[in-house]
């Protein structure tokens, strides 16, 4: 992955810092596409005993890890801090205590070295993860950000202006995966565990409702689906025994995949858009990727999905978006704040 800088004078080096949730991440990216380093300290082992993220625990762990992670990202990229052209950091949306750690570190670097600071939106950064692997791709696409905290659909214009056309009205898709995994005692993060386990099951044997699949708008809802799974198990306990568990989980996953793919593709058709970007942790789901590719082929829509390591939270996507803002002169001041909620 590591490439050596070719021309120090014309290349733009961005240090990306991401701490919006439970991963402490830093990365050095050149020209918005060459990932020189990608360091991530996962907190999965810490949070899995609670079956979900505990915000106070997350922020304390970020404080312990942030210096080491940034140092490691610089060392792996063989880049000195003085060679960085700007620091890009996620300041919204996310857990306040977590965001603060990354933003304070980025501000300190920016202040001490007198380098520009760029504050970026985490959801927009997820969309840009596709640009890291397809640097030449033009705007003019439909973007689905589907993660533990968000399920949102965006219309992105040729000039990369972003308009939200749909969002979840309750749980995010990743949240539904995580809650069902927790209910079944499978562990955390639920999406990844369910993805693996569902491969062994028959997804047609246990059928679940497809919430809001044809309700005429592009909003989502996954809370009712979660309740449907729990009711079904309460009625028939044998569903969680042996192979039945695999079938149950495969059926649940297919319901989520079906809703996400059908609604996104029908939005693309309605808006006459021929390109779809998927991104966010749930975009790592193997069944979702397969279904999007199939629907894309059938409807002549190009599907862009980042490699798995760029689906879940990562710093290269923050550096990539930072690069594009930097090139357009969109830099920030040291008085930037953090925000738990922020729409695009
Ligand atoms: O983007 P992300 O790392 O963090 C947020 O911004 O929320 O997404 C985390 C979410 C979790 O809910 C996790 O269960 C889900 O992504 N996830 C998956 C898979 N890998 C991670 N969901 C479905 N299938 C996967 N393979
Ligand atoms: Zn995310």
Descriptors:
Nucleotidyltransferase, domain 5; binds zinc ion; five-stranded mixed β-sheet; 10 helices; 2 domains; 344 residues; binds 5'-O-[(R)-(carboxyoxy)(hydroxy)phosphoryl]adenosine; globular; alpha/beta
Written account of the structure:
- This protein has 344 residues and is an alpha/beta fold.
- Helices cover 42% and strands 18% of the residues.
- It contains 10 helices and 10 strands.
- A 5-stranded mixed beta sheet has the order 3-2-1-4-5, sandwiched between helices. A 5-stranded mixed beta sheet has the order 8-7-6-9-10, sandwiched between helices.
- The longest helix has 28 residues.
- The mean pLDDT is 95.
- Bound molecules: 5'-O-[(R)-(carboxyoxy)(hydroxy)phosphoryl]adenosine (KG4) and zinc ion (ZN).
- 5'-O-[(R)-(carboxyoxy)(hydroxy)phosphoryl]adenosine binds next to helix 5 and helix 6.
| Total domain units | 2
The end-to-end distance, rounded to whole angstroms, is 31 Å
What is the assigned CATH homologous superfamily of the largest domain?
ATPase, nucleotide binding domain
Low-confidence stretches: none
> How would you describe the shape?
globular
SS class: alpha/beta
- Rg from alpha-carbon coordinates: 20 Å
Helix content: 40-55%
One letter per element, helices H and strands E, the order comes to EEEHHEHEHEEEHHHHEHEH
Ligands in the structure? Answer: 5'-O-[(R)-(carboxyoxy)(hydroxy)phosphoryl]adenosine, zinc ion
What is the class of the largest domain in the CATH system? Alpha Beta
CATH fold topology of the largest domain: Nucleotidyltransferase, domain 5
Total number of helical segments?
Answer: 10
């Amino acid at each position: 992955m590591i490439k050596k800088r070719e021309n120090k004078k014309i290349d733009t080096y961005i240090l990306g810092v991401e701490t919006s949730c439970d991963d402490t991440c830093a990365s050095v990216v050149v020209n918005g596409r060459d990932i020189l380093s990608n360091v991530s300290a996962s907190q999965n082992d810490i949070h899995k005993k609670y079956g979900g993220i505990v915000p106070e625990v997350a922020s304390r762990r970020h404080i312990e890890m942030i210096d080491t992670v940034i140092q490691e990202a610089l060392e792996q990229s063989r880049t000195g801090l003085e060679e960085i052209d700007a620091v890009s950091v996620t300041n919204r949306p996310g857990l306040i205590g977590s965001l603060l750690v990354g933003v304070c570190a980025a501000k300190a670097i920016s202040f001490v070295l007198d380098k520009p600071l760029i504050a970026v939106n985490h959801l927009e950064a997820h969309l840009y993860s596709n640009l890291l692997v397809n640097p030449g791709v033009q705007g003019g696409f439909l973007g689905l950000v589907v993660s533990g905290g968000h399920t949102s659909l965006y219309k992105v214009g040729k000039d990369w202006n972003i308009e939200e056309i749909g969002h979840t009205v309750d749980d995010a898709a990743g949240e539904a995966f995580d809650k069902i995994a927790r209910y079944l005692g499978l562990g955390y993060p639920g999406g990844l565990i369910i993805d693996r386990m569902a491969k062994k099951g028959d997804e047609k044997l246990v059928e679940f409702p497809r919430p809001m699949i044809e309700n005429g708008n592009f909003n989502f809802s996954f809370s009712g689906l979660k309740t449907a799974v729990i009711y079904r198990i309460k009625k028939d306990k044998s569903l969680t025994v042996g192979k039945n568990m695999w079938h149950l989980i495969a059926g649940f996953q297919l319901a989520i995949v079906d809703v996400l793919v059908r609604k996104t593709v029908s939005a693309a058709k309605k808006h006459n858009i021929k390109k779809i970007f998927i991104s966010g942790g749930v975009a790592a789901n193997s069944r979702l990727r397969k279904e999007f590719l199939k629907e894309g082929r059938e409807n002549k829509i190009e599907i862009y999905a980042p490699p798995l390591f760029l689906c879940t939270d990562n710093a290269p996507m923050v550096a990539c978006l930072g690069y594009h803002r930097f090139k357009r002169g969109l830099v920030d001041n040291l008085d930037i704040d953090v925000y738990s909620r922020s729409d695009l």
